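Two proteins were folded this term; both appear here.
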Amino acid sequence: MTVLAAALVAVVLLFAVVRPYRLPEVVVAAPAAAVAVGVGLVTPSQAWDEIREMAPTVGFLAAILVLAHLADAMGVFAWIASRLRRGARGEPTRLLTLVFGAAALTTAVLSLDATVVLLTPAVIATARALQMDPRPHSYATAHLSNTASTLLPVSNLTNLIAFSATGLTFLHFTAVMALPWIVSVCVELALFRAFFRRELLARRGAEPAAERDVPAPTAALAIVGATLAGFAVSGVVDVAPAWVAALGAFALGVLALREGRTRIRHILYALDAWFCLFVLLLGVVVAGVANGPIGQWISERLPTGATFLGLLGMAVVAAVAANLVNNLPATLLLLAGLGTQAPPGLVLAMLLGVNLGPNLTYVGSLAIMLWRRVSARAGSPPELRTFTVLGLVTTPLTLLSSVTALWLVLR
């Protein structure tokens, strides 16, 4: 049974990585979940409990995907691209710094999916328009989609899954993770500038051609800002973040439809219902592993104290697990292993591991898988060797620095 449970997870993840004929991930996840229930790896009641527990998280994911699409339709990312072009002043290093800032904020507020799907093409196009090598800037959006996803509970699906286990409010979570977030982004920027020094210093880029300023989409930015403020107060008034995101998407959707910026079918497509269903069913498949000997073995070997070594050990285990089975299943497995009485510091260290660790390999996170397709379509296909060497340079140092910052905050 243990071998079957592990095999089901492996098959589902392999299919999600390869996606033959561009079939949705749920094509394999649904029968895998059915097998897990059918052979007794997961009882029907356990499967239903898993789906019910994951439903608010998946509801938020759907709402934030729609919100990001509507922000793009209203010109938010076109405006960001115009700011990047003018702010770079023809300097590749300056553009990289601005891309880091834009990607960090986009990931934190609109989640990592917005950074990968919407910001990456804009960044690559901006670099090409300025006659710069787009690779440093494209790789920056990939890494920041993971590295910068630790700030808010809503920045990453892994955060949402683990948020309740921390026992923290939205604002308390953000306050504790602010220093690790700042430190990891700054360390990553310094390492990027060193790693891509030849590409950044090869030659000066072109000055931006004279063009009409793209006006700031003030209404869209105001709605996104109000949604972020709603996230901050949602815990105080005991409202799930999914409802706040849905309200923000509704308000922005009404505006976008009224101005003819999008259509209902585009909004439904952005919702990505098949992927949301995949996430729900993946939880059922992973439960088959978590409930068995593998889950028991993991739980017996996880750190139990929020000392510096305990936090670092938890983050390293989480990073390794994310690169072995992808960060979403790793989060589910490790949360089950930690149990309900785990110190909040260990849960936060686990999030640092599953969020920063995936920068090491192509299969570490769904965001990196998606980035590979998006960047290739935008004309800057990633190179396995460059991505791997860059990950080996940046991941250990960003992980160590962010864990150190978390330890200092918790003290």
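Next, the second protein.
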Amino acid sequence: MKIFTSAQIHELDRYTIEHEPIKSVDLMERAAKAITRAITEEWTTHTPVVVFAGPGNNGGDALAVARLLINEGYKVSTFLFNITNHLSDDCVTNRQRLLEGKHAKDFTEITAKFDPPELTADTLVIDGLFGSGLNKPLAGGFASLVKYINQSPAKVVSIDVPSGLMAEDNTYNVRANIIHATLTLTLHEKKLSFLFSDAQQFIGRVKVLDIRLSQEYIQKTEAQYYALEESDIRSRLLHRDDFAHKGDMGNALVIAGSYGMSGAAILTTRACLRSGVGKVTVHTPKKNYDIMQVSVPEAILQMDHEETAFTEAVDTDDFDALAIGPGLGRQEPTAIAMIAQIRRAQCPIVADADALNILASHRAWMQQLPKGIIMTPHAKELDRLTGSPANADFERLHRTRELARSLQAYIILKGHNSALCLPNGNVIFNSTGNSGMATAGSGDVLTGIITALLARGYHQQNACMAGMYLHGLAGDLAAKDLGKESLVAGDIINYLPKAFMLLDD
């Protein structure tokens, strides 16, 4: 599914108005009816409602919602902020419609001083001050109003976007001046900023309302951002032939685990085996032999000549994919062997964990990475790779996109909505997964899944997409049965078979 920017959404509105055809104020009425329906599903007519409307089209939406709620029997107090004596055309129309209503008695238009109403725990605030078109932080009186609302015990429903929050980049926003919504009723699709962790405190619960915008525009317009859907994965899965043998199903090499970190190698290997690969060979230090042999008897062991660390690059001619990094350690002999291994590899590579930490401390080596390499950093690993901590999630995503472009790599920035950044600069967000997966070893499992899919013959992009989705889906299935609090990385592996079965129905 495409995720459009605020500028593209504005164009989508305009295109819908011109080609449906429909008047802009009628499209606003369609949106207001959807918003009103969502509100009435959650709050009864006994709930006192206070509507704060801004001077633009978000304010027009709010005025239309106020009128519709009054018609439904709600007691509504409406405040329209017209500080500059300039309202959008549709806001003017909806002001007039509201004032012409039989029961619209409690309406105040603010042009100068404002005496705020009392907001109690029983009050429902409708936030229609500013929508997705906002491009600078709120200041002055509007900032003061936002703080007043946030300090109150009232429930808040924001129309489209919480006022003060920008639809994409909030890196330099003033966070004290953003509405903390209880519920955000967003139109057509989630906005890009909603996918970032640093926006969650503002958006509350999110409901996406379909207001039937132009499908023609949606289909023909290119986007930079996408969200994975189940259909995207089903169409990309490779199905096992009835006459297949293990040689047909790919041969993966996993280079992982220093002494004391064999668990990372075990998890990566088990996940790889559970993801359909024919054979897995694990290259690991000698002291890991016994635990690897017992924990993953299906794997072939290839021991490093050193007792406790990876120190020698190996041939990859017989392998279809390579995973390197989980639990590897960062000692200098390991670092030298790691970059030598990457240079030597003749197959697709997944670099994770300590492989990324080594690259972060030897950043000149990144220019030696082969095109098409897959990297799977979490936020802190990405910050190390780029040289400094990011100020916000959008900035970190931007840096990841630039790194993927410059290296011609596939980089998965891991998180609740893991973001696959492609070599062409596009971004694909995962839609599965849960907070129970925030546990040690979860990333090792993802590395194993992607490596198996690469060895099976998936293209890097498809391996990353399917790998992210399956990883999250298995985590969701595990959390459903076991709960989020008790989830461990091994549970994700154990639920991979069920995840594959659900997608293979």
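The chain has a mean pLDDT of 97. DSSP finds 18 helices and 18 strands in the chain. These notes refer to the second protein only.
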